[in-house]
## 1
Amino acid sequence: RSYKYISVDVDGFVALVELRRHQAHNALNLELMEELVAELERLDVDDDVRCTVLTGSTRAFAAGADISEMVDATAVEMKLRNQFRCWDRIRWLRKPLIAAVNGYALGGGCELAMACDIIVAGENAKFGQPEVNLGIMPGAGGTQRLVRAVGKARALEILLTGEPITAEEALQFGLINRVVPSELCVQEALRIAQVISSKAPLAVQLIKESVGKAYDSTLQDGMEYERNCFYLLCGSQDKTEGMRAFMEKRQPFFQGR
Ligand code: HXC
């Protein structure tokens, strides 16, 4: 499969998707987003893939939505363009998505990282929501996911000043999972992806789904949802295999059913 703006590499159960619009700091134009989301959805239904790592270049994960596509667009044109439909589809991916962020993750780039399930950053990474500098505001979750991740005060400082934060600050704020030397960033994300892909795929999927529920439900509803997922997994072959393997002191062989 050949794309204009992304490349895909599958090794074992792990896919690596790379944004390849390096000369524009991976600015997320409409075509790039279409390619990216179509490929993520394709990987999501591929039984041979269990986890995906998404990365950019050494200088930029992504510097945001493509400003040149928005500069002359009217509100009505933007509304009709409906570019967020594409973004919404990321939320419904069932398999874990890990962002490996080097360099700039700004605006839509930061929102794309936040749409991932786990974020690994290189020391040189910079996260920010600079939309306010352009006279606009985030539109793909920047005011929503950021608040949930770092709290209101920190989110407002990032959103209102437009100033980026460092990887170390992002870690301290709870926005990301870990900071590693930049040259090891993708490698570390792939390592985590390999660990995840050695687990029972259905359990992984339902854990992701259940954690997603924690975002937009009451504790009571979330607990109930979790319990039903738990019972569902108790009916899986992988539960039988996982528990038997433990009793027999051997490694389990999971098949995702
Ligand atoms: C279009 C972009 C771009 C962007 C960089 N480029 N970011 N083009 N949209 N978001 C292009 C530049 O125009 C330039 O093209 C080339 O990439 C290299 O960028 P430079 O600015 O020359 O590089 P540098 O001096 O290293 O500065 C890097 C940077 C800066 C700090 C990341 O490019 C920057 O501030 N970019 C904009 C960041 C931003 O405002 N993002 C939010 C966008 S709004 P040429 O052709 O000159 O070489 C948004 C809304 C989200 O994301 C809504 C949801 C979809």
Note: The longest helix spans residues 219-234.
## 2
Amino acid sequence: MSDVYEASADARSSAFLRSLSEYQALYERSLQDPQELWGELAKQFHWQTPSTGPFMQSNLNPALGRVSVTCMAGATTNVCYNLLDHNISENRLGDKVAIYWEGNCLGDSRKLTYQQLLNDTCRMSNVLTNQGVKKGDRVAVYMPMIPELVITLLACSRIGAVHSVVFAGFSADSLAERIMDAQCCLLVTADGFFRGEKMINLKQIADDALDRCREREKGSKGFSEPKCIVVRHLGVAPGGPGVPNRPYTPAKRPCPNLQTPWQDGRDLWWHEVMHKAHEEAPPVWCDSEDPLFILYTSGSTGKPKGMVHTQAGYLLHTAVSHRLVFDLRPSDVYWCTADIGWITGHSYLVYGPLANGATCLLFEGIPTYPEVDRFWQIIDKYQVTLFYTAPTAIRSLMKHGNEPVLRHSRHSLRVLGSVGEPINPEAWHWYHRVIGGGRCPIVDTYWQTETGGFLLAPMPFATPLKPGSATFPFFGVVPAILNEHGEEMKGEAEGYLVFKQAWPGMARTIYGDHRRYEETYFQKFPGFYFTGDGCRRDSDGYYWVTGRVDDLLNMSGHLLSTAEVEAALGAHPAVVEAATVSCPHSLKGQTLYCFVTLQAGHTFSRTLVAELRQKVREKIGPIATPDYIQNAPALPKTRSGKIMRRILRKIASGDPDFGDVTTLADPCVPSALFADRCRTT
Ligand code: 6R9
């Protein structure tokens, strides 16, 4: 065990868990008697009616009947009530800061206490109710990283409505697809926002999406165009600058020129409806298994999957894992840099931390604006103690050297976290040594949109760390490594990562398509939850997630489906066929490498490449823009016509060792493509 990091005795002394054996004992307990451990942890929350059944019940084998998972059956609660009212009344957190908001521009900031967050959330709950939103209805949310986003999620939860957040970097097409899939009755958005220097007219994109919904659903029964509530974030109040927009302040850098398209009768200004709404709203009690939210994640067929998360299990899992894995203290200032449009933002910026009564930082901007030291400057400004980010962000900052970091003290930092993809050792060491000054443990947290919360993660002061390994399972979580035949491999092994039993925070279904849920996660290895990831277990029992084994790729920590990108490229009239694979990238981890076969009469040119890139941005969003597009007069196909992506991956990564090509219809294709490949360094 050469590269192993252990916390100092001093740092351990005050931690929740102080040694590996303490972790192991608690882990064993969590497996032997989940009821005892989780039941104890559940006591910190308010249950309007207690659970009547065992802590969890599940069937993960489609052959034995419908796949189903329930947690705390029979209990009723309200997640928003637990995060706000309960923390205020039981834990006296009314005056504690819940959210520090740091805007894109320097000097643009706000803060909300738990009491203020409750007041605004109640108003918004009344706004939603006044618009006819009821328990179980779906509300689409397409917003920048501003407090109104958190308020909207909590308000939905308060009235039992199901939010469906769509990342504000997704295109109008993607938004429209998600609004229609979940049949949302309302959309909450904002006029616009800045990312660094770049202004995004969000309402324009939202309007385009709503137009698309209308076009596609023309004539179909039961679809009525969603209403739209718009936060004025960038625009100037009617009547000109200086007219108060209270209680909601727009960004410090208003844009008098921002054109916000508007449709009377459908669109409502947030500040106007909020102003008229009452500040008190009783919570609507929900069943432990009622849906809390839907969040879409890429699917290997190209169609995104609306993962459905429910109430009790999700609340418990996110709260407990956040508290233990970050060793949370009442005085901590916790910063998760993920966007709320992703699961990390849902579980570890909103639900887990607020359930724990933590003070959270919500940052609207990007790490490199106005300068590459913005993260470190913010850490000092708010005296951040717990910092959670992604390897891709670390790598992109690492390339600017140590000087921008060393301009700031960062002495407040206590625990660092990593999520989204495997962290490479160079980035791990830089994060540990330079950012954390060698003092702070790094919790490498492995989990997914589907899992709701951490599945593999260290206890920061108890688990000896190995750079690049998410170490051991969280409480109540049982990993296994299977071979191609579905046989479990013990000891040192490499294969498919699965989980042997249900855990509280797991997604219960895919919205509107339970069969797809069963097929995607439980069909390949009946009785196990299949992650889609490969994994290795070393001789010390540490888990090392090696990456996706399906047709998904992880670009800058975002999961993308190669099929979806291929479909976007195929929508260009010049393209007959497209094949997309991932290839390694020094900053993004993985990137997209696309092969396109053109229609006769079209020539491959720079203009065409630019058009193809644009097509992908339009259909999916800027996060999916491919780095490499190669002309492929022919693709390597089997005689039955299947594209051999294995060979394309080799070409993309510059490896001429194609392996067995005898099954190809034309064995010359790989070398021809290889000779013409794009430079990928
Ligand atoms: C939370 C999140 C899930 C996929 C997952 C895996 C990769 C996430 C990781 C990791 C290695 C880690 N992944 N965390 N790989 N080490 N610590 O990212 O959810 O967007 O659904 O992505 O991300 O491949 O399957 P999501």
Note: The longest strand covers residues 575-585.
## 3
Amino acid sequence: TPRAIIAPSILASDFGKLSQECTTVIKQHGADWLHIDIMDGHFVPNITIGAPVVTCIRKDIEKEVVTHSNGEKVTKGFFDCHMMVAEPQRWIEDFKKAGCDLYCFHYEAADASQNPHTPPVQLIKDIHKLGMKAGIAVKPGTSVDVLWDILANEKEGEGRPDMVLVMTVEPGFGGQKFMHECMPKVAALREKYPDLDIEVDGGLGLSTIDTAAEAGANVIVAGTAVFGADSPGEVVAQLRAAVDS
Ligand code: DX5
Ligand code: ZN
């Protein structure tokens, strides 16, 4: 399994002082990425923020490449944008301009049954062309079987995703209960792709991290568990230790 990447979800932070919260969670609490939840009120029944707000926080957060003892590199301050939007193809340029590093769209929104739609592989190519990493997310009810053909693209230029996000709650809100039944999907992905970044999102915290780590997840999103903690730095460290041990 690749190294742990701890990505606090800023959805659980105080939006009134968002930029400060982001800086603190990285500089003081030791987080790696920022998980930025973008919701459009269509794909999910909630609205959060758009590219203009991402632009503002990008101004205050510099990126820094850190090399671990085993030689693996992690970029601190990397913006992991989780796009819970009905038309993911529509926002890629805006998000690139705003400073997004990884554009993670939902398979369900890029699926051929949607209209208008851009198929996942085309979307991944478009995201890569703009110089961002591409992620593909699946809701709890979506089988990983939809991903095998997409993951079979071996080269970046062919539309290979850089990360898969296995949702462990129904997307839309923070603070929900972790769904253990999603773990076989993580295990199936890890078995076939030992080096893939596999992200889990929803209900992750000290009581659920071991299950997720055992299944093979390495990119850990945590909103409430980090921002709601008395000692966020200890939570970040413990999440990391559970994955890296
Ligand atoms: C839910 C979002 C999550 C959420 C996680 O739709 O994608 O990123 O903020 O929050 P917690 O960690 O509180 O479940
Ligand atoms: Zn998310």
Note: The pocket of D-xylitol-5-phosphate (ligand 1) is lined by residues 9, 11-12, 35, 37, 82, 169, 171-176, 201-204, 221-225 (CB under 6 Å).
## 4
Amino acid sequence: QLARSEKQLLADYQQGSDESYLRRLQILQALPDAIVNRKLQLHYQPKMDCGTGQVNGAEALIRWQHEQLGVIRPDEFIPLAEQSGDILRVTRWVCQAALDQQQYWLEQGIDIQMAVNLSALDLQADDFAEFIATELRARHLSPTKLTLEVTESAVMADLEKAQKRLKELRELGCKIALDDYGTGYASLAQLKHLPLDKLKLDQSFIRGLDSDANDRIIVQSTLSLAHELKLQTVAEGVEEQAAWRLLRQMGCDTLQGYYFSRPLAAVEFEQWLKNEAPRFTNQNKKAITNE
Ligand code: C2E
Ligand code: MG
Ligand code: MG
Ligand code: MG
């Protein structure tokens, strides 16, 4: 008996439209075991205060190293997990693992805002907010230190349900961020009724910031609009110091990107906090004095 997504893959193959179908089929078949046997891992990427250069959070990003298939990137397996429905269990594992880490760090004196990514199906599950509430309570963690990142397409899949779910999560005290903003088709006008706290500008606008005048205009006007709507702003994909300087001039609140750090395993993240992070606050002081 083939699952729906496996049937879909088979159909793709028969149409000759998907040569990587075998790998995708293998990924789909291996996923349930990976979830149950804890073969998934989280990496953490720091978020920086744009004004001070201080760390103000971390985003949990899933990783999967498979014995035979090698590294499977989330961009490859998350869409498959969404098709098969496995994403519901993936997300719950991600939330639990990220909160375990947050609790452990708090015990070590590392107090950090944690962000996790949600998919469309998570927002449709009626018990999702209750699940989050239970997991937070079990670890004595503050809901205000948990950010849930959702993309526009996840929200648009069922706007009414998403709205309801995000409202519940926000009433708990969690923060909601709209991820990859600018890559979808919805306008801020359509999204204004969503209970949002933060807007994450997609990296495609940030990478060309230094060289592309159009990107600068798009980013500047999006930042202004977001601030008028009382949303905090986050820029992803900051790879160069020049982008930091420009984003500071434009009044962006938070930065994330390889310039500061790639996503790191928990222990590496702790090392980075100790050895690398202080560099950015100092660098920032120098930069401001020179501006
Ligand atoms: P996202 O949530 O927008 O995460 C940002 C992605 O950009 C991450 O890729 C991160 O490693 C990458 N990135 C960060 N800074 C830079 C930079 O300066 N330059 C470049 N080129 N890339 C940068 P990653 O970890 O491969 O994740 C890709 C996407 O997969 C995520 O995009 C998210 O949509 C999804 N994803 C990852 N983990 C999860 C998860 O636990 N659950 C769900 N539902 N989706 C996840
Ligand atoms: Mg994200
Ligand atoms: Mg993003
Ligand atoms: Mg993305």
Note: The mean pLDDT is 92.
